[in-house]
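Q: Please design a sequence for this.
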């Protein structure tokens, strides 16, 4: 326990290190990353998705990438998102799309990013699919919600993510009533000025926002591997006659696979977040930071090489 916080800070530092992120693209899926990242191409990722579909799981694909600071890279990422939606449609896979807007030019220009998002969400609409905008760190939170609001004036097939560790989460839930949201605890290192630092407070607020969004009649994706949170959601929805069609559980590819299948057997929609691509390093480091136990993935990866 003494080492847990320094270890978390170390991995969070690495996750934002642009030099390491750039170098990782040359390494391939090393250090255990292949256990939690479904390949480097959309074709390999869709193969994994179809395997999961056969087990009764639905999916969301995320072409990994962040820290884009050139228009050329952002346009390439936009085209890849469109290509991914086209590949999903062609394969018949039960899968939607998740994305990070910093990959699409959010740090360059809000309007530029919005135009890229319009193209992606329109493509998803053409294929009767859905786009989930991942929430990044607090500095991008309001930008993300502003772009979502602009998109929602034109499209109903787009939603985002709310992070329970942010003080603003409860108000954001109220403001986003009626919109499909993925609710998470939060995976970035945030300051005490904007976020709860205590795990018990985060957990309490997580259950709070889940219940509020469900009670508002809004579609709710509960993204957690915490069996206690899952048990509480099951109990709450049954006691309040909230239909299973109004919510789903979500988990990460490579984590708690037995629990995913148990939920499917119980009749709950369970969606697996399936990341892929060459830009895997930041994502993998955040998974290491979340729980020290996840370091075992890296150790197994090294041993197997």
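A: Design:
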């Amino acid at each position: 326990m003494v080492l847990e916080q320094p270890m978390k800070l170390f991995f969070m530092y690495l996750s934002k290190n642009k030099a390491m992120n750039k170098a990782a693209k040359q390494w391939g899926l090393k250090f255990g990353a292949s256990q939690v990242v479904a390949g480097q191409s959309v074709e390999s990722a869709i193969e994994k998705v179809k395997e999961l579909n056969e087990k009764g799981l639905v999916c969301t694909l995320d072409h990994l990438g962040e820290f884009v600071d050139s228009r050329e890279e952002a346009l390439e990422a936009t085209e890849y998102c469109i290509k991914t939606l086209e590949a999903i449609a062609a394969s018949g896979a039960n899968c939607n799309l998740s994305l990070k807007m910093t990959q699409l030019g959010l740090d360059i220009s809000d309007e530029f990013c919005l135009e890229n998002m319009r193209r992606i969400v329109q493509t998803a609409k053409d294929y009767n699919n859905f786009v989930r905008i991942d929430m990044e760190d607090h500095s991008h939170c309001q930008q993300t919600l502003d772009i979502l609001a602009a998109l929602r004036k034109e499209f109903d097939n787009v939603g985002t993510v709310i992070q329970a560790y942010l003080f603003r989460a409860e108000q954001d839930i109220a403001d986003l009533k009626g919109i499909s949201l993925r609710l998470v605890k939060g995976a970035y290192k945030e300051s005490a000025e904007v976020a709860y630092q205590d795990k018990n407070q985060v957990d309490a607020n997580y259950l709070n926002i889940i219940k509020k969004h469900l009670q508002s009649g809004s579609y709710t994706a509960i993204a957690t591997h915490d069996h206690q949170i899952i048990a509480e959601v099951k109990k709450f929805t049954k006691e309040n006659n909230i239909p299973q069609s109004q919510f789903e559980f979500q988990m990460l590819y490579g984590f708690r696979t037995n629990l995913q299948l148990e939920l499917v057997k119980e009749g709950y929609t369970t969606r697996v977040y399936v990341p892929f691509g060459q830009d895997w390093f930041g994502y993998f480091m955040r998974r290491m930071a979340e729980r020290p136990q996840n370091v075992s993935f890296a150790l197994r990866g090294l041993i197997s090489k």
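Q: Thanks. Anything notable?
A: The first strand starts at residue 58 and ends at 63. The domain at 38-279 is CATH 3.20.20.220 (TIM Barrel).
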